[in-house]
Design goal:
Structural class: mainly alpha
Radius of gyration: 17 Å
Order of helices and strands: HH
Strand content: under 5%
Largest sheet: none
Keywords: Membrane, Transmembrane, Transmembrane helix
Helix content: 55-70%
Length: 66
């Protein structure tokens, strides 16, 4: 389940792919793409939510088991 969630997040952000060969590198654009910042913020939010849910679940289990 953990890997399925990670796979879903990576596929939604379109970060999946192969390791590029030397031929696959293109010259960098002069200005960063406007969608790049949005993707970075979305990825940071997704990571924060996953970590927060993991901590919340751990605390909830500890309270309810003991």
């Amino acid at each position: 389940m953990r890997f399925l969630a990670l796979e879903l997040i990576l596929s939604l952000l379109d970060v999946r792919g192969h390791i590029p060969r030397f031929d696959d590198f293109r010259p960098a654009p002069a200005a960063p793409a406007p969608g790049g910042a949005v993707r970075a913020v979305a990825a940071a939010i997704a990571v924060f939510i996953v970590l927060a849910l993991a901590v919340w679940t751990t605390v909830w289990l500890a309270v309810n088991i003991f």
